[in-house]
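Researcher: Following up on the earlier apo prediction. This time include the ligand. It's magnesium ion, with the SMILES given after the sequence.
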Amino acid sequence: MPDGTAPEEVRRGDPPADTIFAPATPPGRSGIAVIRLSGPRAREAVEALAGGPLPVHGRALRILRDETGEPLDEALILTFAEGRSFTGEETAEIQGHGSPAAVAAILGALGRQRGLRLAAPGEFAQRALAHGRLDLARIEGLSALLEAETEAQRRQAMRVFQGALGKRAEDWRERLLQAAALTEAMIDFAEEDIPEALPEIARLCGEIAGELEAEARGARLAERLREGFEVAIVGPPNAGKSTLLNRLAGREAALVSDVAGTTRDVIELRMVLDGMPVTLLDTAGLRETADSVERMGGERARARAAAADLRVHLVLPDGPRPAEGPDDIVLRAQADRLAGEGPGISGLTGEGVEALVAEIARRLSARTAALGAGLTARHAHAMAEGAAALREAEALARAGAAPELAGEALRRALAALDALVGRVGTEDILGAIFQRFCIGK
Ligand SMILES: Nc1nc2c(c(=O)[nH]1)N(C=O)[C@@H](CNc1ccc(C(=O)N[C@@H](CCC(=O)O)C(=O)O)cc1)CN2
Ligand SMILES: Nc1nc2c(ncn2[C@@H]2O[C@H](COP(=O)(O)OP(=O)(O)OP(=O)(O)O)[C@@H](O)[C@H]2O)c(=O)[nH]1
Ligand SMILES: [Mg+2]
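Model: Understood. Below is the ligand-bound prediction.
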């Protein structure tokens, strides 16, 4: 069983010996530029530039000068005492003027001081983790927040960042430990028959497994929300698929011609619909053909369309109608020209396009509304693994198997929960996350 100790670099109480600094705002022109320092020499290093003492925890307006007395910038300085900062370490922030030259001059003067070095990407957040100010789940939320481009992504990331997952996992863990304690009691007091414990163990395991399964499903959807939903446009050659894609894109992204079989490969186009990232797929028209290249295009189109979250089918009056499931939107093609039954669309005139966009957004947001939190594929995997082990324990308990067997399955479930919140096996995950952070975060 994991002993609960944190991996080497995240153990508390051994503060890194060095002080790091980095610009916290993007390089280039801006009104204000922020330079952050964290570590035992953070305040002292800024005091050297400010030419005198700074409050231990507060703010001050100072002229910053280099070693020769040359004035570099006028800056607002924020200081955070050790234990009362984002990283948990002594921290200072220089809020100076946002010109590249002023920032370069301050960074230069800091870099010439002893015991200071430029931070690696994500190193501030890493130190916050090392000092217990953030946990893995919240760091993942922070990472997603930093990368959020759409409103839906921001909302989800914020939920994780605020610790929703950590709280949920702690609750699962407690109930799982209850079940584990019951199996231990059965093992320890094997002579005294305690058969009433088995139904209770099975009930607990089944309950937690059900919740984990539901969250894992949500996490998989959340991953789609981050990566983007795929919406495929399908239909016979010359139906007007590429014309519709171009209309939706507002530009000539795909080739259009009156030659059937114009689109041969899958064309992908990213856009944002109602705050949701969507990748539109224009596919090759589906028909029987002797042209081997076109046939390959058709096979690809079929595979991608089958895997897509939604399919928009363009149908011709005399053509076959596709089987309609919850992920299918069927529209009459070239409605400006061809009459017929049902809702129609025309990529040429724009008729029905607004209604289609609304319908796509409606169907996709109905799914994302079901999400508990903005989680990743990694979370989904850990939760599914935990659920599977719990289902095993549940079945063993129901079958009246030896409690040792259920106990072993419970240990595996606990390990999966530990991985979920980063109690174990975090190095790889953290390495990957921090690499994506920018310098100064
Ligand atoms: N200028 C600036 N803006 C920023 C940050 C920052 O570090 N600096 N942040 C960085 O991500 C975010 C805000 N998050 C923060 C979280 C905690 C603390 C902090 O120092 N907390 C202390 C209390 C400080 C006080 O009240 O004076 C603490 O919790 O003990 C600062 C920022 C976004 N905006
Ligand atoms: N009147 C009318 N013509 C259209 C419409 N959509 C497409 N067309 C015309 O139909 C022809 C085929 O259009 P495409 O968009 O290339 O059709 P496609 O479905 O992408 O065809 P493939 O890539 O060959 O499968 C072109 O000449 C278009 O101008 C429409 O809504 N109304
Ligand atoms: Mg086409």
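Model: The chain has two domains: 8-135, 158-422.
Researcher: Noted. I'll compare it with the apo version next.
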